[in-house]
Design goal:
By secondary structure, this protein is α+β, with helices and mostly antiparallel strands. It has one domain: PPM-type phosphatase domain (Phosphatase 2c, domain 1). It is 26% helix and 26% strand. It contains seven helices and eleven strands. A six-stranded antiparallel sheet has the order 7-6-9-11-1-10. Strand 4 and strand 5 form a beta hairpin. It is globular, with a radius of gyration of 18 Å.
Length: 296
């Protein structure tokens, strides 16, 4: 089984600063062994940008060693490793906020996917999401830690009403805002043809699940151009890096030949979110599980 990974971030149409960050680590030679992270910072005056970049950097630092050798990877205890990584990153961001006046109160949502063969772990804090597309249907894996998610669960509002609710941006859990954090962890077994999507709420707040699924289903073999003026993209990155919005976009070219590639879906999702208003920064990573030798 091959893995194709592509990520991109865009400032959107309203914000003057991109406070999202993302990172892709591993997946060497399209092997199913690596991880991807999306973080959506908050705090204003660049503090959110600092928090999101720190979350990606600190998680990567902590998790590089477990992903250094697939033969030594300990799947049985990896959920504990994830908890340790998130606790470490949370506390370091929390200390940064206390020690720097301009960063006081900063925090970030974070969602991450970790892949070792067919074993997949998803972890999240906040309202950045992970979806899985399987058998032409879409499922949200993560649970939003937000005011509107709690209202939906109580039956006070619908998912459609939540997208325009005045409290839609209020989250109930974030990394770095308190000394300790609870991290949700999910585990699943990947199947051939599965597609995982990580995103900040700049996507999920503009497109509903059905619209996201439509883009993914219609994007295979399509040629789509992203507006790169305020975007940065990365594809199957072979080292640890944090990606931010920039005026001059950069792009890696590491997709395996003979694999369905998520680039067109990721770029079209960002285009559609911007076309729908682009109220927030938009970050999307696609992780596709392909059979070796599949035709594009």
């Amino acid at each position: 089984m091959n893995i194709s990974v592509f990520g991109a971030t865009d400032m959107g149409k309203i914000r003057e600063l991109n406070e999202d960050s993302f990172g892709i680590y591993g997946f060497y030679e399209e092997k199913p062994f690596g991880f991807s992270i999306v973080a959506d910072g908050m705090g204003g005056h660049q503090a959110g940008e600092v928090a999101s970049a720190a979350a990606v950097r600190l998680l990567t630092e902590y998790l590089t060693e477990p992903f250094s050798d697939i033969d030594k990877f300990d799947a049985e205890s990896f959920s504990d490793t994830i908890n340790g990584a998130f606790d470490y990153a949370n506390y370091e961001i929390y200390k940064m906020s206390l020690n720097n006046y301009g960063q006081h109160g900063m925090g970030t949502t974070t969602v991450a996917v970790f892949v070792c063969g067919i074993d997949v772990w998803i972890a999240n804090v906040g309202d950045s999401r992970a979806y899985i597309v399987r058998d032409n249907d879409i499922f949200q894996i993560t649970k939003d830690h937000s005011v509107v998610a709690e209202m939906i669960e109580r039956g006070s509002i619908t998912k459609e009403e939540a997208m325009t609710h005045p409290n839609r941006n209020i989250i109930t859990r974030a990394m770095g805002t308190e000394k300790y954090v609870d991290t949700d962890i999910f585990r699943l077994s990947a199947r051939m043809g599965d597609k995982l999507i990580l995103c900040s709420d700049g996507l999920s707040g503009m497109l509903n699940d059905e619209e996201i699924l439509e883009v993914i289903n219609n994007s295979r073999n399509s040629e789509i151009t992203i507006n790169t003026e305020n975007s940065e993209t990365a594809e199957n990155i072979q080292n640890s890096e944090t990606y931010k919005s920039s005026d001059n976009a950069s792009e890696g070219e590491k997709a395996a030949e003979g694999s369905e590639n998520p680039k067109s879906a990721v770029t079209e999702l960002i285009n559609r979110a911007n076309a729908s208003g682009g109220r927030d920064n938009i970050t999307v990573i696609g992780i596709y599980f392909n059979q070796a030798g599949d035709e594009k």
